[in-house]
Amino acid sequence: MASTKIQVKKADLKEGKPVGLDVNGKKVMLVLFGGKPYAINSVCSHRGGPLEKGAMNGNVVTCPWHSAQYNVENGNVIPQTPWGKHQDSYKVKVDPDGSIWVDA
Ligand code: FES
What we know:
By secondary structure, the chain is mainly β. The chain is 0% helix and 43% strand.
């Protein structure tokens, strides 16, 4: 895993509004939750739905295709939607100037 500085800055993110990114060829969903950015694999483990287009409720994102739900803090599928499998989650670091680094 390499730490990559992404184009998006923390000030560009809105609480609970995911964005989709390509980081080193990996599709990543980045979202601000509780004022902190979190990154998980954005390709749903069920059938490849785009999690960056999913709705957020608290720390949970819902896949727009068949509603699997994932905790964005660790990528884990929630037990109530077992058709999804745990998503990879990536470490995120924010510099004092608001630049964001993602380990993906
Ligand atoms: S593709 Fe995400 S729940 Fe089916």
